[in-house]
Amino acid sequence: MTLKELFEPMIMFFGLTNSLVMFQIIMNKILWDLINTREVVSFINNVIVETKEKKRYDELVEEVVKRLAENNLYIKPKNISERLEK
User: Fold this and answer.
1) DSSP one-letter string for 27-56
2) What DSSP character marks residue 15?
3) Cβ contacts of 48 within 8 Å, gap of 6 or more
4) 26-84: per-residue pLDDT in tens?
5) Is residue 24 exposed (0-12), middle (13-18) or buried (19+ Cβ within 10 Å)?
6) Beta carbons of 67 and 31 less than 8 angstroms apart
7) Cβ(21)–Cβ(28) below 8 Å
8) What pLDDT is attached to residue 49?
9) Alpha carbon 42 to chain centroid, angstroms
């Protein structure tokens, strides 16, 4: 609060502006060649893998998880298992 009015910042402090956009750019760089095959789609914190063959699906999921781990990004195992049960 200031003397004359309430102060509300227009951006997040500590360099957190555009964090969603930056995360999307990181995901695109990590998964670029898989995205180009049109078997993997990434949108912010969702990665969708779609194939016709179960074996190829398993290979892609393994590759995606490997690349995320190499870049210090992690997936909760609970999220993977919930998707597979559906």
Assistant:
1) HHHHTHHHHHTTSEEEETTEEEE--SSHHH
2) T
3) 40, 41, 42
4) 889 999 999 888 888 888 778 888 888 888 888 998 898 899 899 988 777 665 655 55
5) middle
6) yes
7) no
8) 86
9) 6
The encoded tokens of residue 77 equal 């195992």
pTM over 0.90: no
Q: In whole angstroms, what is the distance from residue 45 CA to residue 30 CA?
A: 13
Res 70: pLDDT: 92
69: tokens are 């781990």
What distance in Å separates the CA atoms of residue 60 and residue 56, rounded to the nearest whole number? Answer: 6
Give residue-wise pLDDT tens across range 11-22.
Answer: 555 655 667 788
**Tokens describing residue 82:** 């919930």
Retrieve residue 31's tokens.
Answer: 């998964």
Q: Which residue has the tokens 């997936």?
A: 75
* Helix/strand/coil for 20: helix
Q: Token pair for residue 55?
A: 């074996």
